[in-house]
Design a protein that fits this description.
Length: 378
């Protein structure tokens, strides 16, 4: 088995953003303490199930806002992981952070604990937009957080950005892109705002308080991000992700190339030995199941070879480098053209896919509507 990526979901935030449909609860010390004990027990159970000390090549603490746990709790998670797994030298260790939870001491402690990649939720450079999103920080706080992170020794920073807000204009988004670039991050993720019905923003939109950003404008903002960030030297390596050379996120790449990862914590997903499973989402259920000595799995699915081929295409095509036709054939014993010949020909004729030597990849036209392409392979 190749080295695993380890994802740990920390389900707490200082406050809930207006658009958030992630599994996250308001931070509460007692709940966080129970979560940490449960996570430790889940690590024990999972490590025992895997047998031996499985090798780990990347660790990603996501959420939620892992940094609202504080440095000591995060260090204890790493200690526990190291006790039950073999964390390989050079492992990429990412922690997601929101600016309102960061301070110089916490950042120094995280860096000392071995965290070598920090992903900061900036989202926008405009405080009116940040308030609209219900974020708990100003742009000034983002700038401070980046300065503190650099002083603490971090040399690999990601900034998360969101575009397509109701009422957002192209020039507002351009300002966010420019301010993000001025902070000099090694990596930028740019996501189209998804409006989920069961969120305060979703309900406000349903009640007619705001109109969604028109699709055409969101498309222009996305293309602006590609042009602006690539002109600044970032490589657009995945639909929503941009990195300076060599700074692509190694952990997230696992999801797109079909390599194994183990997810721990509520709602975490795993992919290992041709199986996918998801943990229960509710924190209470998660804690109760693990306290009863059970793995907190809500659903598990053994993938058929046909499903794995489908995934290899629709996940692999997320990478702008595309899918290697010979690599696919080596993995599955059949070339993509033999399995999806009709779909590939149609998408090539529509200008959504192109073939370059051994690679099949999305065209620029397809990037904003990539789901249309992916649907052809599902
Ligand atoms: S910081 Fe992220 S996870 Fe937390 S509430 Fe906001 S969007 Fe949700």
């Amino acid at each position: 088995m190749s080295a695993l990526g380890l994802y740990i979901h920390v389900p707490f935030c200082r406050r809930k953003c207006n658009y958030c449909d992630f599994v996250s609860y308001p931070y509460d010390a007692a709940a966080a303490s129970r979560y940490l004990q449960t996570l430790a027990q889940e690590i024990r159970l999972r490590a025992a199930r895997l047998g031996g000390k499985a090798a780990i090549g990347s660790i990603y603490l996501g959420g939620g806002t892992p940094t609202c746990l504080g440095a000591a709790a995060i260090e204890s998670i790493f200690e526990f992981v190291a006790r039950h797994f073999t964390v390989l030298p050079g492992t990429e260790i990412t922690v997601e952070a929101n600016p309102e939870t960061l301070n110089p001491e916490l950042l120094r402690a995280l860096h000392l604990a071995g965290v070598n990649r920090l992903s900061i939720g900036m989202q926008a450079a405009n405080d009116t937009e940040l308030r609209f999103l219900g974020r708990g920080h100003t742009f000034r706080r983002v700038v401070e957080a980046v300065e503190w992170a650099r002083r603490a020794g971090f040399t690999n920073l990601n900034l998360d950005l969101i575009f397509g807000l109701p009422g957002q204009r192209l020039k507002d988004w351009e300002k966010t892109l420019k301010e993000a670039l001025a902070l000099g991050p090694e990596h930028i993720s740019a996501y189209d705002l998804e409006i989920h019905p069961e969120t305060p923003l979703g309900r406000a939109v349903a009640a007619g308080a705001y109109a969604c950003c028109p699709e055409e404008e969101a498309r222009e903002m996305y293309l602006m991000a590609i042009d602006c960030l690539t002109a600044a030297g970032y490589r657009h390596y995945e639909i929503s992700n941009f990195a300076l050379p060599g700074k692509e996120c190694r952990h997230n790449r696992l999801y797109w190339v079909g390599e194994p990862y183990l997810g721990l914590g509520p709602a975490a997903h795993s992919y290992l030995e041709h199986r996918r499973w998801a943990n229960v989402a509710a924190l209470q259920d998660y804690c109760d199941l693990v306290a009863g000595g059970k793995l907190p799995v809500a659903e598990e699915h053994a993938l058929t070879p046909a499903e794995e081929m489908s995934e290899a295409l629709f996940l692999g095509l997320r990478l702008t480098a595309g899918v290697s036709l010979s690599g696919f054939a080596a993995r599955f014993g059949r070339r993509p053209e033999a399995v999806y010949g009709r779909e590939i020909s149609r998408l090539v004729a529509q200008g959504l896919l192109c073939r370059e030597g051994d690679l099949l990849r999305l065209t620029r036209t397809a990037l904003p509507v990539a789901n249309v392409v992916f649907a052809a392979f599902v």
